[in-house]
Every structure is written in C-alpha cells, then in structure tokens.
Amino acid sequence: PILYSYFRSSCSWRVRIALALKGISYDQVPVNLVKDGGQQFSAEFKAVNPMQQVPALKIDGITLSQSLAIIHYLEDTRPNPRLLPQDPKKKAQVRMIADHIVSGIQPLQNLSVLKQMGEKKMEWAQNCIASGFQGVSHI
Predict the structure, then answer these.
(1) Where in this chain does the record put each GST N-terminal domain (predicted)?
(2) Is the residue at 83 inside a domain?
(3) What is the distance of C-alpha 132 from the center of its chain?
C-alpha cells in the first residue's frame, strides 16, 4: 500500500492510526499542503486524487480517498484486529461520533475553509469546533 499523507492532517492521522492498529505496513508519500502553494494542487497528485485532498491510499489495485471510507475498507478487507465493535448499537455510536468529527468539526479547521473566512476566522472556527465537541461529549 501507498499512503499519500500530510503530517499535520487529522484525516491522515486517522488512516495512519488504523493502518498501525491493523498491522499493515505501507509506503508513505508526503503531500505538503502548504509548500509551493499546496502540493495537493499539483497535476501529479490530482491524478491520484481529483479532490486534491489527503489522505489517499493505493491498496489492492484501487485508490481510495476520504479517511472513513479508507478505514471502512480496511475493516471490511482485513477484519482482524477489529476497529469497530461487533454490537450494532455500539458500532452505530462509533460511526455517529466519527461522522460528527469528519463532517461537523474537522472541516472547520481546514486551511481551505479558514482562508475564506476573513479576520475572525479563528474565533469562528473555535466556536464551531467547541460546539461540535460539546455535542459529541453527550453521546
């Protein structure tokens, strides 16, 4: 497997953690999201992931993007050790927490979002992220 990743990307961290827990060795290709205006915008990386985002994982003859899709694929194709509980209710709760994070909290701290928010971007992002974590804490 080849993981296209950025060291500060929380999405990439999720995949690296899953790969480590599963004991899957892989090669890593760094994609610096800041250097040279963002290496994710290069034609070379766009050929890997047209969304121009990390992580992307080449594995089993396919290329996957989006951290949760990658993690679910790893869980489906390499079920041991398990990352998700077997109990459907507990599994749903884990997926709910993960969805809250990837769609409600994490995007608000992305460079692509913050660049468009103006002067109060940090205050805005911190309020939204704190609200999201408050909601997750009650699950």
Answers:
(1) 1-82
(2) no
(3) 17
